[in-house]
Amino acid sequence: MSFCEVELIILQKYFFREWLWTFLATAIVLLIVMLGVSFGELLHDIAGGRIPSGLLGTLIVLQMPGVLGTILPLSAFIAVIWGLGRIYRDQEMAVMRASGFSSRLLLRPLYRLLVPVSAFLLLTGLVLAPLAASVTQQRLEDAFRNAAEWGLQTGKFHVLRGGDLILYVESVGTDGRTLEHVFIQQRDQDREQVWAAESGYYWLDPETGTRFLTLENGRITEGGQQSLDFGIMRISRHDLRLPEPEERARSDALEARPTTEILFSGEPDEATEIQWRLAPAFAVLVLGLLAIPLGHSAPREGRGGRAVLGILAYIVYANGLYMCRNWMAKGDFPTIPGLWWIHLLVLLIAFIWLRHQGRTAGKG
Fold first, then answer.
1. Three-state DSSP class for 56?
2. What is the pTM of this model?
3. What torsion, rounded to 10 degrees, do the Cα atoms 311, 91, 26, 280 define?
4. Which helix (H) or strand (E) holds 107?
5. Percentage helix, strand, coil, to 5, in the chain?
6. Which of 112, 125, 152, 199 could form a disulfide with 147 if both were Cys (CB 3.0 to 4.6 A apart)?
7. What is the side-by-side strand order in the sheet with 165-172?
């Protein structure tokens, strides 16, 4: 091995270390931010009665595969742009090019970083994320059958749906499912109902996933908030439907299905889901290649301008994927080419830009 070849290997290792540490630092920061956002959304769902408070920690962990699929492509993109920007700013690239180092030689350390990340995202999207969604769905179903895990505290008023539903339970049976002396106040526009029952229990419809609270041996008082037309009705049993966003339930059901089950289905929504699971693994490769020309800067040019340009490019790319996914789910766009044309278009732009940059550097 000649001296020049040894030099090139050392430089490629230098780029790899620069990108790797920047990637890890960026991923940790974005992970903390995204977990904070997920935590806030879960607290909002808990306040609305859609998620049991006892599952908060478990659901945070189970959301990790989905969060990683979002932040890792962006982390790799930022790492390459930021790392190259520093090297250009400190004049290191000018010295390297004087020694015969070209932009084409950046591809080897780049894909040493990106290929393992892409493989991990492929495993996450096809296996870990559906498994986590399935476990989440099962834990929620089990929790909603158990009043204690759902977070019901005896002797305390629980305000749900922004105050439209108020629930009070005097005690919970030893099985964690049976409720004793239940009081419910429910508002629907200008009507108000007050439910009082000796006992009750939760159950989940296995076909629709809808949650119900069954009340036994009680009465219902109903009337208008601005009128005097009140009525009282005795009940031996009544099933009260609890709030559940149906759109979210259908989405969760599809996300929880194994990849092998929907891979060759041919249905538009299932084909869309498969392409969406594959998208992060391809996006990290495409964005990494696009980051090479985006990271190029003039000797006295700061990194801020390139960083802003990179963020704009990422927003356009990500929004294109989201919009195309929504069109496919609604049946307004065919599953072939589906999301693939967006990946290929950005990849083509990256190749053309990288080639143009290499020719410009060669002439300089």
1. helix
2. 0.71
3. 60
4. helix 107-123
5. 65, 15, 20
6. 152
7. 157-160, 165-172, 178-188, 191-204, 211-224, 231-241
Residue tagged 């040894």 (tokens) = 6
Place of tokens 């044309």: 341
- Quick one: how far is CA 172 from the chain centroid? 35
- Paired residues of 214 in beta bridges: 201, 239
Considering only CA atoms, which of 276, 265, 269, 263 is closest in space to residue 340?
A: 276
Closest CA to 235 of 254, 215, 255: 215
Kindly state the tokens that stand for 230: 């009140």
Contact status, residue 321 vs residue 342, Cβ threshold 8 Å: yes
Closest CA to 283 of 92, 144, 125: 125
CB half-sphere exposure, 149, CA atoms < 13 A: 16
Q: What is the pLDDT along the chain (364 residues), one digit of tens a residue?
A: 443 566 677 777 888 888 899 999 999 999 999 988 888 888 877 766 567 667 778 888 888 998 999 899 999 998 888 888 777 776 666 666 666 666 677 788 888 899 999 999 999 999 998 998 888 877 776 765 555 445 566 677 766 666 677 778 877 776 666 788 888 887 776 778 787 888 887 777 766 667 777 888 888 887 766 666 677 778 788 787 765 543 444 445 778 888 888 877 767 788 888 889 999 999 999 998 988 888 776 655 555 666 778 888 889 999 999 999 888 878 778 878 888 899 999 999 988 888 877 666 555 4
Separation between Cα atoms, residue 359 and residue 337, nearest integer Å? 32
